Amino acid sequence: MKRLEDFTYHHALILGLAKSGTAAAKLLLDSGISVRINDYKANPEDPVVQDLKEAGAEIILGGHPVSALDGIDVMIKNPGIPYDNSLVAEAEVRGLPIITEVELAGILHKGPMIGITGSNGKTTTTTLTHEILLKSGKQSSIAGNIGEVSCEVARRTNDQDTLVIELSSFQLMGIERFRPTVAVLLNIYEAHLDYHKTLENYRQAKAQIFKNQSEEDFLVFNIDDPTIAKFIGEANAQLVPFSTMQKLDKGAYADEEYIYYNGEPIIKRDEVVLVGEHNMENILAAVAAAKLNGATNEGIINVLTSFKGVPHRLEFVDNIEDRLFYNDSKATNILATSKALSSFKQPVILLAGGLDRGNDFDELVPFLDHVKAMVVFGETAGKMQQAGEQAGITAIKKVDNVEQAAQAAYELSENKDVILLSPACASWDQYRTFEERGNMYVQAVHKLK
User: Are residues 229 and 131 in the same domain?
Assistant: First the structure.
């Protein structure tokens, strides 16, 4: 496996273990770099901790002492740790570089790289791009938020591999040299303001994806997104737009009949399996990114006529007595839920709620016009109920969790109804991840049989 050969630092502090911290620590140790690890919650008896200690890492657990920064020349921060963390703030005062592990992936991987970010649709677009490249006979590896840690995957790639990475704003804030040959900007919507504090900070974090690109690189972007349109001129890369609303001579677009790339019709829309207008945006972005990396029309057609989606993103679960159950647990903000609701014409019973990040749900109200009932849960249950009442929904039930929500929704439903888990909130008030939340819902649906 590859090692870091041109890493400019010698004494690294890994702040926060989890998957990304563990992978970064192993890579640095294998590369002969001094590693100190600081984690507030990790168990000293954890085999991972013991293995890293035996490999030569210094371990500091149970707190964040300022002395952990002594003798350090770079901090590699878990993306989820905010910048107002005491140790991160002190590192900034000391002028220490603060990076995330994706920076290490960018150093390791010498072949083409596609970086994909946006408020919504990252996982679907990343998966589609990867699958299209594979079906086109290209070598492709997939990494990032979607599964394996980026630097771990980058250790195994070769120069012929295209590395396709799903990137969060948290990861992008911690880059120095990271430079995708193709960057993809799907959309920007108010999200993660508990972390970024302002929409402008969030926008700037997303814009990091193209900050190191040159005129040799490409930036695939949503020309229909007004927020993106405001700052796209800052990019040095060649601009490749996509649109669901307008005809384009360059880039990817769709009309009522076909999907096009650079004006060439590739596939009829009615042959595409993946549902939802928002997914058409993801498809167009993936087509453009894959085409820029040598994908064939045959590869695109093969994937789009068979790809039904990714787990927890408008995932069809089951049909029980003519009720259609969908799992959209990955919808962790209002935009994602509004797009999920827009995917259905028939009556919907919406299951929603979760972590309270301080926002209300007024923007969701216009999309509740065909929602006949709501089942709400989590910290935002009260706010969700208010939004439902504002939309004129009278059948609203409050429950404790998604398992109870599945049962309650079934009791409220009739033939032909869609029962949709699309929380519009993060899961961390009750569940460790949106995957755990979605899995609990899926299990509860199967029990209804």
Answer: yes
